[in-house]
Amino acid sequence: MLTELRIRNFAIIESVALPLGPGFNALTGETGAGKSIIVGALGLLVGERAASDLVRTGAEKATVEGVFDIAGAAPVAAALDAHGLEADDGTVVLKREVAAAGGRARAWVNGTPVTASVLSELGRLLVTVHGQHEAHALLDEDSQRDILDAFGDATSDARAVGAAHGALLAARSALRDLERRRDEAARRADWLRHVAKEVGDAKLVEGEDARLDDEARRLTHAEELRALAGELSDTLEGGDDAVLARVGHLQRTLAALQKIDPGTARLQELFDAAYYALEELARESSSYLAGVEVDPARLAEVERRRDLIFRLLKKHGGSVASAMQAAREAQAELDLLDTAGLDQRALAARVGECEQSLAAAAGVLSKKRRAAATKLAKAVEAQLPGLGMPDGRFYVELIPRSEISPSGAEGVEFRVALNVGHDARALSRVASGGELARVMLALKTILARIDHVPTLIFDEVDAGIGGKTGLMVGDAMRRVAEHHQVFAITHLPQIAARAHHHIVVSKGARGGVTTADIRVVADDARVEEIARMLGGDAESAVSREHARELLATAAAPPRLESPPAQRPKRRV
Which of 145, 147, 214, 339 could form a disulfide with 412 if both were Cys (CB 3.0 to 4.6 A apart)? Predict the structure, then answer.
């Protein structure tokens, strides 16, 4: 549960540490005092979009921190472990910071920097915000189906149907792809045979085109190459006046130098290296000259081969490798004509197996949904009188589909008849915002035991109700609080009186800048706040007596921590 919410420089809030207890927490205050800002700060904490306009005027950044006790919250512990994070003695601290310059946001979990997506994932496991916007999610078929599956313990069965449907689609796609490729191969068979034969008969070798280019160049210029190589060879070792002979005579000169000055030994080393290099050049030149032949017949053969390869490459991709690949692909398509029948039968059999698996999984899911639909309708209907809708009727309709979808063999639609003499209609067509909020509360009361999110935030779900209905809604929230921590922002004294902990927010000014104050109220201070909410004079004996009566009629609280004693006002 959320044990403390710390907010600094967020909207009109300067600084606040908001203590929360187990059970039902109510937040009240005058309109515009800043109650919705606290909900906005909570939303930012659990991953909602950040923006620079959230930062309080004159501040550099806004910061929101939430301290959560996650003892017994296995899904949260598992998510922390999956991201390499640890809880501190069963405590998790989420922190979000927004800079005034550019609206850049950063996030931390127990002091470790994390991405906004990780913060959002953990936030969804820790807190759920319910307001009129969230109530409208009840109008969505997917949400209604998810609620029914959760109630009927069929969520895993719904996932199994989705997986089976995905497998069937994959099998059908593979079969269609095979048939398409087979039909395409049959249509292009003559061309494919031509490609496979043409390239195959050419017996291409990788890199052959480059080698033939080199050979053609040498054969074309053979006479010129022989003349140049011969000139080089003759110059090096062609007679007494050749380079090697003349360099060899220098040996005697070097020997005479060393005899007089032994320090010239280095010159001998350089001479030896140069002489050996010239000898190697002479040998290579002679060898090259011997290898150059004037061979018109071979040149004609090379040119014919080059022309053949050029024509093939022009048609099949521009390189020997691409032409060889084209031949392989053509042969593979031709082979498909021989094997497609066998493969098609195997894939058709796979499609049949997937269809049976999907039908079986959908049948199990439908059975659970039928049982759950009856039970959920009765359970919600039983809650409606206690929420100010004594004539309300609730129905869960299962609408058969012509074909099994990823979500099952039927659609799910919640229907209500909230007044005597009216036929049941889709929830979206008959319910007002206040009625939607109360239907949502009825569902949340029923689902409380199976909902693993520990903290539920109810933001002004009391819109459009009052009087005795307000008391009923307060009692319903108190029942939900037996299994969750509930934090409700409310204008109704009937609801606030049912809370285990009561926090008041008020607006003031400091240094010419609007601020918000909070205080935890109990005893006489709480009586005064309830009296103010009743609309009378908070100081009058009548208003106070009425407030005490409301507080006295609240259901006996479960064994919870005592609410904190009244504290001095905090400037926030």
Answer: 145
